[in-house]
Design a protein that fits this description.
There is one protein chain. By secondary structure, this protein is an alpha/beta fold. The strands form six sheets. The protein has an eight-stranded mixed β-sheet, with helices on both faces. Helix 6 packs across helix 11 (about 370-380).
Length: about 850
């Protein structure tokens, strides 16, 4: 049985759902049943030579209290054990594996899924290598290892192949897992987005009822599959046959849309599961999550909602509108997933006004199961979907979202409406880094690194989608503004600068050609003012000249009709991106007959162009690559923090940073005057004394730092001053040699339970509290992320105009590696990190350690609303 609270649901290659968990003595009978159900050729478990040969020995190990190093994971389908994978430790970091899968479940991905979960569990428990001896005739098992994606070596001997499998998950393994997840998820979502039959449960006869509206939309929209209704009080609704319950429907529908009162939903779900329904869309709100999810799990169904407006698909082979939205859906090229029904309706209506539409729309509501990650997997290779629009109020698995979004964004634009940006719920932060890491900062870092175009509302979302519909991406950020109204041209140029775009310098040849076309009162410099007197033909020729300038990457063409002419007709497509501004149009955005996006406000055009420039820049970034870091002693680092909790002592901080090859100013912790004097003598340079006291985090502002102390008298006086100031709170004094002067920076880490470690950089030292100037990125950091951190804070041009950035880049790499390798590091501040002409060194540092349960964010499993925030 799968009653354990530590049960994961996951998808097989055919889209069916299995439950996975560790097995214990109570599962011995299920293992024996699995064994007895195998054909004779399969009963002799000749997968691995040293692992148990017979399942009775396998069971004996499982049930023996003297086998603590034996771990077994089982896969259940409808509470029947269909496969098991086991490892037995051979030494501290190596284990031998065994695997068995029910005969009728082989070649469905059960074995691969079990091995993925076994690898993840073993890695979290310190195992670094699997060993297996596979019969040379066992081609299926050899193929499982070959396709797994992990690095492995093999050697054949006496009819067996010895396999050594490294468990470190590199990019190749993560991509292999993602490919398998994508295939399985698409298979499972077919019954949601391309069902061959649908039943609407709670299809009322009143037009005002939600169930009636859903059924009406299915019928009037021309759904191509079979439609049924469940309403115990009538035999038909809207001409559709109605039945007393799902059990009475003549066939098992692929999809059930549930529109009954909340208290009735779990029983309806139970009826659907028994009837063989494969997926539910629960429109109802206020549903008991435990009761509903228990049913969904037991029958292996997918679930959209509850508390949603439904799902739709405009594919001509489906034409499914299983929502209660008003009006027909417009077929188009945008996939939409949203937690808000209101946002879903607003996006659909605004796209329709532009003549654009959707491929699929999924309102996830409370997203107990199907989430944005699932839809990203669906749309990744869907050729009909050219862009993806997201409205997400929460992230169940943000690190997996980041990886999936990055894969999709390489193929097509992914846009997200920023939601819940308020910092009212910001937690109290102890370090400078943590005070920077607000929910909005973390979310924006996630979007930026994943290549997601973030917008600030439905209006901006549709404005960007309008441009992406047919506008090529700019090769750079140099913009030319062409206008027949000088003031509007100036406003457009100002808006470009405000959005971080460059107003291009037109070449002399371009300026001369423009002057030859335009009246003497015109301006041939950017922004170009053609004057109001030009006709559309002349305006169009000017547009060609400006777009052809090698110093121009994109053009904003601004027109306004006057009594002497309207040059808007001269705005046309060129080899470079063109956005239009029509100051007199009523709509915020429209599309011209040849697909050019046209805006009512120059500021909107500039904002959209900046989004296109950012996407082009992100696509030009190389894929993230792992950089080998010399001088890292991970074993030493783990030993430093073992058994620690809270803020580490200064000497431990120095040891930890040194273990990652970080340049850190050393020192010693002393507890009496004599030791402080001896330390200063040994350094033979002036020293700094820093109080080590309870609750003293910001030493400078708390009066806990004394600088430039030289000689016995000065050090003695300084030590006694700190002892007088802090009294019994003083547990020691950290003595450091004075560092050389230089530019002071901050590099820090704060770990979010969901998002993982966030790396922050900016001005440090006294400037930290005076100037809020930071850049942030989620670890692990790619080279492009390092560029963003080094150049993303406002003072960066000045800092790195005077100093080489190479050493700081290396510090950021190592800090990122530290944060990824040691999830126990909850906060880290290197402040100040002193950057001098020929070196960089962390003069002061703080590290807070907290218990952290290792997690695998990329493990293939379905979302669990009861365990995922």
């Amino acid at each position: 049985m799968t009653t354990s609270s530590n049960v994961d649901r996951a998808l097989l290659a055919d889209g069916s759902v299995v439950a996975l968990r560790e097995l214990g003595p109570a599962d011995a009978e299920a293992l024996l049943a699995l064994h007895l159900g195998l054909p004779p050729d399969d009963r002799y478990l000749r997968f691995f030579s040293a692992a148990p040969r017979h399942l009775d020995e396998f069971v004996a190990r499982l049930t023996s209290p003297e086998e603590p190093l034996h771990v077994v994971i089982g896969a259940f389908a409808s509470d029947v054990l269909v496969g098991a994978a086991s490892y037995v430790l051979l030494d501290d970091d190596t284990a031998e594996v065994a695997l068995v899968v029910a005969h009728d479940r082989q070649s469905h991905g059960v074995g691969t899924l079990l091995l993925e979960h076994l690898v993840s569990l073993a890695r979290r428990r310190g195992v670094r290598r699997f060993r297996a001896d596979v019969l040379t005739v066992n081609s299926k098992m050899l193929r499982v290892f070959a396709d797994l994606g992990l690095v492995w070596t093999s050697a054949a001997d006496n009819g067996e192949v010895r396999i050594d499998l490294g468990l470190d998950s590199d990019e190749r393994y993560l991509e292999a897992v993602a490919d398998r997840e994508q295939a399985a998820d698409v298979a499972s979502l077919r019954v949601v987005l391309k069902p061959t039959s649908i039943v609407v449960v709670g299809a009322g006869r009143k037009r005002s009822s939600v169930g009636n509206a859903v059924l009406h939309n299915l019928v009037s929209g021309g759904y191509t599959g079979a439609v049924y209704a469940v309403n115990p009080h009538t035999d038909q609704v809207l001409g559709v046959a109605s039945y007393r319950s799902v059990a009475d429907v003549p066939q098992a529908p692929d999809l059930a849309v549930v529109c009954v009162p909340a208290e009735a939903v779990p029983q309806v779900a139970e009826d659907c599961g028994r009837r063989g329904v494969k997926a539910l869309v629960v429109i109802t709100s206020g549903v008991d999550p435990d009761r509903l999810l228990d049913v969904v799990r037991r029958y292996g169904m997918r679930l959209v909602g509850p508390n949603c407006v439904g799902v739709s698909a405009t594919d001509p082979g489906v034409r499914m509108n299983a929502t209660f939205m008003d009006g027909r859906l417009t077929a188009g090229e945008v996939g939409v997933v949203t937690q808000s029904g209101g946002v879903a309706i607003a996006v659909v209506e605004r796209l329709r006004a532009l003549g654009l539409g959707t491929t699929e729309l999924v309102s996830t509501g409370d997203k107990y199961d199907v989430s944005g990650n699932d839809l990203l997997l669906w749309w990744e290779r869907d050729e009909a979907t050219k862009a993806v629009a997201l409205y997400l109020e929460s992230f169940g698995n943000p690190r997996k979202f980041s990886r999936l979004a990055r894969r999709v964004a390489r193929r097509k634009p992914v846009l997200a409406v920023r939601a819940a940006s308020s910092e009212a719920g910001q937690r109290a932060a102890a370090s400078h880094t943590a005070s920077t890491a607000t929910p909005a900062v973390t979310r924006d870092a996630l979007f930026r690194q994943a290549g997601v175009t973030a917008v600030d509302g439905v209006g901006e979302l549709v404005e960007v989608l309008a441009a992406l519909h047919a506008t090529p991406l700019p090769a750079g950020d140099r913009v030319a503004v062409l206008s027949n109204a000088g003031g509007l041209g100036v406003l457009a140029a100002d808006a470009c600068v405000h959005r971080g775009l460059a107003v291009a310098e037109l070449g002399p040849d371009t300026a001369e050609a423009l002057r030859a076309l335009l009246p003497g009162t015109a301006s041939a410099h950017n922004p170009v003012d053609t004057t109001a007197a030009v006709d559309e033909r002349t305006f169009g020729r000017c547009l060609d000249l400006v777009a052809a300038d090698p110093g121009v990457d994109a053009v904003i063409a601004v027109t306004v009709p006057t009594a002497v002419g309207d040059p808007a007709g001269g705005v046309h497509r060129t080899a470079k991106p063109v956005l239009a501004v029509r100051a007199d149009q009523d709509e915020a955005v429209s599309l011209t007959s040849d697909g050019i996006a046209r805006y009512a406000d120059p500021a909107s055009a500039a904002a959209v162009l900046a989004a296109l420039v950012e996407r082009g820049r992100w696509l030009r970034h190389a894929e993230p690559e792992l950089v080998e870091l010399p001088g890292v002693d991970l074993a030493e680092a783990r030993a430093v923090i073992a058994g620690q909790q809270g803020w580490l002592s200064p000497d431990r901080v120095v040891r930890l940073l040194a273990a990652f090859g970080l340049p850190v100013l050393g020192g010693v912790v002393v507890r009496d005057v004599e030791s402080a004097v001896a330390a200063q003598r040994s350094f033979d340079v002036p020293v700094a004394l820093k109080a080590v006291a309870d609750d003293l985090l910001h030493k400078s502002s708390g009066g806990g730092v004394l600088l430039d102390l030289a000689g016995d008298h000065a050090v003695t006086y300084g030590f006694e001053s700190l002892r007088d100031r802090f009294g019994d709170r003083l547990t020691g004094v950290f003595v450091q040699p004075m560092a050389r002067r230089g530019r002071e920076l901050l590099v820090g880490v704060v770990t979010d339970p969901q998002f993982g470690p966030l790396v922050v950089t900016g001005l440090g030292g006294v400037d930290t509290d005076l100037v809020d100037d930071r850049a942030a990125a989620l670890a692990p950091l790619s080279e492009a992320d390092l560029d963003d951190l080094l150049h993303g804070f406002r003072a960066a041009p000045k800092v790195f105009g005077d100093h080489d950035e190479t050493a700081v880049r290396d510090v950021l790499r190592r800090v990122s590696h530290l944060a990824e390798s040691l999830p126990e590091v909850a906060e880290l501040d290197l402040n100040p990190l002193v950057l001098a002409s020929d070196h960089v060194i962390a003069v002061d540092a703080r590290v807070r350690v907290a218990p952290a349960e290792p997690v695998d964010p990329f493990l293939r499993k379905l979302r669990d609303a009861r365990r995922t925030p």
